[in-house]
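[Meeting: bench + compute handoff]

Bench side (C.D.) handed over the final construct sequence. Compute side (W.E.) agreed to return the predicted structure before the next meeting so the bench team could plan truncations. Sequence as handed over:
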Amino acid sequence: MRTWCVAAAAGMLACFGCGGRDAPEGAASGPVPVMRQGRLAHTQTKLADGRAVVAGGLLSARGLLPPANNDVEVFDPARGKFTVVAEMKTVRATHSATLLEDGRVVFIGGTPGTRVDVFNPHTARMESGGDVLSSRGMHTATLLGDGRILVVGGATHLVTYHNGDFHAEGRYLNTIELYDVRTGTARPFSATLKVPRRGHTATLLADGRVLVIGGTWQKRTEIIDVTAETVTWGPVVGTPREDHRTTRLVDGPSPAGVPIHRDAGGRLLVTGGTATIGKATSVDVAEIYDPQTESFRTVTARMNRAREDHTADLLPDGRVLITGGEDNAAGPDGRDIVLDDVEVFDPKTETFTRLAPLSVPRDDHGSTVLVDGRVLVTGGEDKDDAGLSSAEFVVVPGRKPVPP
């Protein structure tokens, strides 16, 4: 695992590949037009009109940081290509990108400064978003019901790269702040996390609270009550982890036939990450959080591949596509190996099925489910620590949209 907090600054679509033929289901379809620059630890956000916004990221994971960029590229499925449409005011990587109700995208962190950039897709311009209070990366930024953004944890930006890995010279954060894009200002939250966290996830629950899972190998979760401005311990996970992914599942019956009510906000699937099992080790264990019981349980089936820093996308039919990442003990002499592995989780059977691999291994990449159900995968780190400029589609077998 790379312990890092970046100093940076964290009809054409149907005609790809040879002869314009569609890819075999379950296989990567081959490359789409490349991005202007290679990038890893970037963000990728789906807009309401179906386009995908790719922003920032490291050019390479080698040398002293920051080797990052400030490009904002948009992939338009109708045109089948990437277009550089704007530049952020500062370079960023391991930053956050939050989609607002009005369609704009807010970029926070991933740079030594506190400046916030706001991309307006309607004008294709970058707007000033004012400032947050702290410089941080590998944090979370959760959109609240009132339009504010809850910024949680992360790490400060003092990192070097030597002896084949990232080494943090800074500190992990337990601070929380509330950012309001309407005023371009932030204020400190009254409470802090019980423990500092980076590489965690933060998910908005149906009742407006935010559930913080993992980060710095924490087994206990935390619940942030925004209204009361309190932080309390939450339920315990089965496997302490960081650099995992949390995906909200489509509501429906569990394998045991127990109904999951829509007002409960849906179950959460937690996949992969790295855990401290003697030493930091990528895991193949998944868990499900049930909002009715407010508890976690371990999924009986194991993932086909231990992985961290992967992507996990909810598909239109309710399944979850899991792509790439790295296994930090699978290579020669127990070193990291970048993965091309792809699998899909079916919440009805709670099983994982291996699919055809990506065209190239990718770690710290981005992904977006397009309107036709295909998944656009962009960039990431290759086996030589360089940022990839390539992208590809993944076609999942048996795509059936969930009825409204």
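W.E. noted at the follow-up: Residues 18-394 form a domain with the Neuraminidase fold (CATH 2.120.10.80). C.D. will use this when planning the next construct.
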